[in-house]
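User: Let's play a game. I give you a shape written as tokens, and you guess the letters that built it. Ready? Here's round one.
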């Protein structure tokens, strides 16, 4: 099952590690949106694969880029990864082959993911 698990580890200064981890584990106001976006990316990773788009790891790579940009740690990181895996596994249980319904779902999830991305950028970009 090609779900997501990040293998990167981060090194930090020992004196700052505990306070930095606590600060990064605190929920950000947009965490719900990030978790939903992660779930959408997992869904697209699965559905686009069974619908023969030949995108390879595009959606998993998008998830990695999201994690790299956000740099969550601890519980926040685990929730984002769990969201991706939930999206992937949920649709894996429902769809074994590409169907017209799967194609509609792909379109809707791309639209929803694009909207979340735009909204997050408009509200929180520096």
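Assistant: Ready! My guess for every position:
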């Amino acid at each position: 099952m090609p779900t997501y698990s990040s293998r990167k580890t981060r090194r930090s200064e020992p004196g700052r590690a505990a306070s930095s981890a606590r600060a990064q584990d605190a929920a950000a106001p947009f965490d719900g949106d990030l978790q939903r976006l992660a779930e959408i990316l997992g869904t697209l990773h699965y559905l686009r694969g069974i619908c023969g788009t030949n995108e390879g790891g595009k959606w998993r790579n998008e998830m990695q880029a999201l994690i790299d940009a956000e740099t969550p740690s601890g519980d926040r990181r685990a929730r984002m990864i769990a969201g991706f895996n939930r999206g992937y596994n949920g649709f894996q249980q429902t769809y074994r082959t590409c169907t017209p319904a799967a194609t509609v779902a792909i379109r809707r999830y791309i639209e929803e993911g694009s909207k979340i991305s735009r909204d997050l950028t408009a509200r929180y970009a520096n």
